[in-house]
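User: Teach me something about this protein's shape.
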Amino acid sequence: MKSKVQWLKEGDNNMKFFHAKTVTRQGRNKIRGLEDEVREWHEDEKKIQGITVKYFEQLFTSSSPLQFDEIINCVDHRVSEQHNCELTQEVMEVEIQEVIFQIPPTNASRPNGLTGGFYHNYCDIMGDDVVEAVLAFF
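Assistant: First, the predicted structure itself:
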C-alpha cells in the first residue's frame, strides 16, 4: 500500500522514480526460457519463439474435426434464399454510379479523404476507373 501511495505522489512528477519502476517491471515480465514438449529447457530467443508458435498451433488445430453440417443445421436461418440470391448477384455499373451520387458532397470517404463532391464533379473523368476498381473488389 505504501508503494502505491508513493507511486501516486511521485510517479508522474518524478521521472527517475517512474523509469526505475518501469525497468523493474520489464525485467520481471521478460520470458527468460521455456520448456519444450520433452521437458527440455531452452533460453535461446529463436527456440523460445519456436516453442511458443508450436504450442499455439497445436492448441488451435483440431485433431478431430467436427461434423460442421450437424452444427450448421442447428443455426436459425436469418437470410432467406431469395435475399441471399439478391445479396450474391453480380454488382452492376449502374448500381455503383448510383451509390457514388448518394455520397453527401461534404463527406470524405477513407482512406483517400476525397469528398463525395469530388466524385460528383469529376465522375465524367474518373468514373470508369472508380467503377472498374469497385468491380475488381467484387
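Now, about its shape. Strands lie at 34-35, 41-42. Helices lie at 2-10, 15-29, 45-59, 68-74, 81-88, 93-102, 116-121, 123-137. If you'd like, I can walk through any region in more detail.
User: That's plenty for now, thanks!
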